[in-house]
Amino acid sequence: MVMKLHEYQAKQVFADAGIPTPASQLASDVDGVVAAADEVGYPVAIKAQVQVGGRGKAGGIKLVDDEDEAREAADEILGMDLKGYHVGSVLVEEAVDFVNELYVGITMDRGEGKPVAMVSTKGGVNIEEVAEEDPDAIAREHIDPSFGMHPYQARKAVYDAGVDQAVARDVSSVLMTLYELWDDRDGSDAEINPLMVTADDEVIAADAVMNIDEDALFRQPELAEMEAEAASTGDDLEQKADEYGFDYVRLEGNTGIIGNGAGLVMTTLDLVDYYGGEPANFLDVGGGAKADRIANALDMVFSDDNVDSVVFNIFGGITRGDEVAKGINEALEQFDEIPKPVVVRLAGTNWEEGMEILNEDLVTVEQTLEDAVQRAVEYAGEVNE
Ligand code: GDP
Ligand code: MN
């Protein structure tokens, strides 16, 4: 598995190693964006910080010239759902006035069992597409990891790609640094797309990707810390989960899942998948779930824009079915209209009392887990249509 740094983190790592990057600041609310833009100076690019490519095309990047535009763009991007990821923060960055967009990257060529440096003048677009449609547009140079990258190899890749003479030296030097980072930091991919070229022949990393081999994180304490930071600031929901003391993981689907005990939640997840649905999250409310914890769990899945239906799977041990049922009723009674359909399955301690207590005007009650999951998947599907 790989750990993906956010753009702002990868840029920090690149900048520390001497690669030119635009001035920028991170922000997580509209006023913060305006303050950051004042500091950086207009025009600025406002960029969603989610670990996924193609943000530009998906509406996650906006260039703005003044405060009004900045507010509007920040309001639009913050909190948006970008390819299944909730946008909790944006990078506010000095807009670069470029004449060319290049691609430079280092990755592992599994076929050759060696790292490969890649350079292309077709930067700024999805490089996988370039690789497919016009493979010759990407110059490649394999590197022997025991010797590292030689300067002549960097120059050759840059020359083969057809990079303008005036910037060839600087691009080679960026490529060398990128390889050193990849090597020192246990990278699986290190990539700059686009590496922008300005009218006065400066090169500047306008985007940054750094993926790290997860098994090596123990010897990369600085990067491990970045991962922890991203988890605590990147996502409102994860922050909420921290406050509530839940184990919570966001997934890409739209069927919300709440259960007690990691195994039980995993099983529910697998069943959602089995019945043709897509899990929106993993949420374990833990043992002895009292009414207020149940209400908090519902608050979490209801505030997740991706969730279209919710399945509750509770197996009572110390957690009593009647307590859970009361919690569900209390939480749902607060709404004039239930925001998303909720399906409940109770088993174990006091499950019968629980079933009786549940208000069927507010929730759908099912006897078996299979039925409950199928029902929730069905509801999620209906909302989608
Ligand atoms: P990605 O879509 O997630 O790869 O995000 P990028 O950071 O690569 O940005 C995508 C595209 O947005 C770039 O190729 C540029 O065309 C544009 N863009 C991003 N930042 C700037 C900037 O500072 N100035 C200008 N003019 N365009 C930018
Ligand atoms: Mn990019």
UniProtKB/TrEMBL annotation:
<feature type="binding site">
    <location>
        <begin position="317"/>
        <end position="319"/>
    </location>
    <ligand>
        <name>substrate</name>
    </ligand>
</feature>
<comment type="function">
    <text>Succinyl-CoA synthetase functions in the citric acid cycle (TCA), coupling the hydrolysis of succinyl-CoA to the synthesis of either ATP or GTP and thus represents the only step of substrate-level phosphorylation in the TCA. The beta subunit provides nucleotide specificity of the enzyme and binds the substrate succinate, while the binding sites for coenzyme A and phosphate are found in the alpha subunit.</text>
</comment>
<keyword id="KW-0816">Tricarboxylic acid cycle</keyword>
<dbReference type="GO" id="GO:0000287">
    <property type="term" value="F:magnesium ion binding"/>
</dbReference>
<dbReference type="InterPro" id="IPR016102">
    <property type="entry name" value="Succinyl-CoA_synth-like"/>
</dbReference>
<comment type="pathway">
    <text>Carbohydrate metabolism; tricarboxylic acid cycle; succinate from succinyl-CoA (ligase route): step 1/1.</text>
</comment>
<comment type="subunit">
    <text>Heterotetramer of two alpha and two beta subunits.</text>
</comment>
<feature type="binding site">
    <location>
        <position position="101"/>
    </location>
    <ligand>
        <name>ATP</name>
    </ligand>
</feature>
<keyword id="KW-0460">Magnesium</keyword>
<feature type="binding site">
    <location>
        <position position="47"/>
    </location>
    <ligand>
        <name>ATP</name>
    </ligand>
</feature>
<feature type="binding site">
    <location>
        <begin position="54"/>
        <end position="56"/>
    </location>
    <ligand>
        <name>ATP</name>
    </ligand>
</feature>
<keyword id="KW-0067">ATP-binding</keyword>
<feature type="binding site">
    <location>
        <position position="193"/>
    </location>
    <ligand>
        <name>Mg(2+)</name>
    </ligand>
</feature>
<dbReference type="InterPro" id="IPR011761">
    <property type="entry name" value="ATP-grasp"/>
</dbReference>
<keyword id="KW-0479">Metal-binding</keyword>
<feature type="binding site">
    <location>
        <position position="96"/>
    </location>
    <ligand>
        <name>ATP</name>
    </ligand>
</feature>
<dbReference type="GO" id="GO:0004775">
    <property type="term" value="F:succinate-CoA ligase (ADP-forming) activity"/>
</dbReference>
<dbReference type="Pfam" id="PF00549">
    <property type="entry name" value="Ligase_CoA"/>
</dbReference>
<dbReference type="InterPro" id="IPR005811">
    <property type="entry name" value="SUCC_ACL_C"/>
</dbReference>
<dbReference type="InterPro" id="IPR013815">
    <property type="entry name" value="ATP_grasp_subdomain_1"/>
</dbReference>
<keyword id="KW-0547">Nucleotide-binding</keyword>
<feature type="binding site">
    <location>
        <position position="260"/>
    </location>
    <ligand>
        <name>substrate</name>
    </ligand>
</feature>
<dbReference type="GO" id="GO:0005524">
    <property type="term" value="F:ATP binding"/>
</dbReference>
<dbReference type="Pfam" id="PF08442">
    <property type="entry name" value="ATP-grasp_2"/>
</dbReference>
<feature type="domain" description="ATP-grasp">
    <location>
        <begin position="11"/>
        <end position="257"/>
    </location>
</feature>
<keyword id="KW-0436">Ligase</keyword>
<dbReference type="InterPro" id="IPR017866">
    <property type="entry name" value="Succ-CoA_synthase_bsu_CS"/>
</dbReference>
<feature type="binding site">
    <location>
        <position position="207"/>
    </location>
    <ligand>
        <name>Mg(2+)</name>
    </ligand>
</feature>
<dbReference type="GO" id="GO:0006099">
    <property type="term" value="P:tricarboxylic acid cycle"/>
</dbReference>
<dbReference type="GO" id="GO:0042709">
    <property type="term" value="C:succinate-CoA ligase complex"/>
</dbReference>
<dbReference type="GO" id="GO:0004776">
    <property type="term" value="F:succinate-CoA ligase (GDP-forming) activity"/>
</dbReference>
<dbReference type="GO" id="GO:0006104">
    <property type="term" value="P:succinyl-CoA metabolic process"/>
</dbReference>
<feature type="binding site">
    <location>
        <position position="93"/>
    </location>
    <ligand>
        <name>ATP</name>
    </ligand>
</feature>
<comment type="similarity">
    <text>Belongs to the succinate/malate CoA ligase beta subunit family.</text>
</comment>
<dbReference type="InterPro" id="IPR005809">
    <property type="entry name" value="Succ_CoA_ligase-like_bsu"/>
</dbReference>
<dbReference type="InterPro" id="IPR013650">
    <property type="entry name" value="ATP-grasp_succ-CoA_synth-type"/>
</dbReference>
<protein>
    <recommendedName>
        <fullName>Succinate--CoA ligase [ADP-forming] subunit beta</fullName>
        <ecNumber>6.2.1.5</ecNumber>
    </recommendedName>
</protein>
